[in-house]
Amino acid sequence: xxxxxxxxxxxxxxxxxxxxxxxxxxxxxxxxxxxxxxxxxxxxxxxxxxxxxxxxxxxxxxxxxxxxxxxxxxxxxxxxxxxxxxxxxxxxxxxxxxxxxxxxxxxxxxxxxxxxxxxxxxxxxxxxxxxxxxxxxxxxxxxxxxxxxxxxxxxxxxxxxxxxxxxxxxxxxxxxxxxxxxxxxxxxxxxxxxxxxxxxxxxxxxxxxxxxxxxxxxxxxxxxxxxxxxxxxxxxxxxxxxxxxxxxxxxxxxxxxxxxxxxxxxxxxxxxxxxxxxxxxxxxxxxxxxxxxxxxxxxxxxxxxxxxxxxxxxxxxxxxxxxxxxxxxxxxxxxxxxxxxxxxxxxxxxxxxxxxxxxxxxxxxxxx
Length: 368
Known about the structure:
Layout: H1 6-10, H2 18-32, H3 41-57, H4 60-69, H5 71-75, H6 90-94, H7 97-105, E1 114-115, E2 118-119, E3 124-130, H8 132-137, E4 139-150, E5 159-164, E6 173-178, E7 181-186, E8 195-200, E9 209-220, E10 229-232, E11 248-254, E12 261-263, E13 266-274, H9 275-280, E14 282-287, E15 293-298, E16 307-310, E17 327-334, H10 341-354
Helix pairs in contact: 2-3
């Protein structure tokens, strides 16, 4: 198989500058790097092809010979060598190569927020369980949990005699060559901190943080949705050596209520009424979730499972200035199971007068 033109391989025009050659190669090398395409022979071939093209076009002398004589001009100069020494400028192209792959595979998220080169403290989670009424109308609860806070003895510094790590020069990273690339890893001498402490604090053993049992009040707003979380900024673990703390996430779990169900901002309950109340109509009293007594009119001829609405007696709508959903009351008509002889006789007379059929016709489902 014949070789492709080096400019065609990198996807650049013949007269482009060195920076454009670098950018084009960088893009292809990231796409086809063997570490990202393990077992893919085609990707490996394209990576080698792009690398060969870059080695020639990034060298002024080789590029001039290639432009004048093509592949023959490069062959006369020894051709592509594929050795690490020929790529002394690779760090200039890629920098920390692991950072490139972070952009592809989800690195650099909020959990890695940094301040002055130091990672923020870790986030914490705390779960609480509250009653149904407390979730609907809100309340303030006190929680207790353990977290890391700044050491009082050293004020978070970790100790005395803080100096720059001699192995990494204060960067917190050391680099090693892997083929053509420079890979950065955490410095083992300073643990990635960039500094070492000659006299570590005895209170925190040089970490700058100590474990602390904290009590804090959490406000649950009215209308809080079940199984949601509340974020308390800065109430997580303290970051190392003065870095900012993480956050605390309080997860809310709501106990079910025996009489009420919630659907978004509306409440639902079921009330039993007698057969005569359904037939004749009646005034009944409803106890709401917040202990109000409201009179509800049952129309005459009410059928089983009829739904009546009481406006504004549902769940408070979050950030809506006191507006609330509605309360829906489902009526369940109860049929007496024990009748006296006289009651049975009266019901038979009632049935005969209304001409009840022993062969009722089906009701259309859409009319239910």
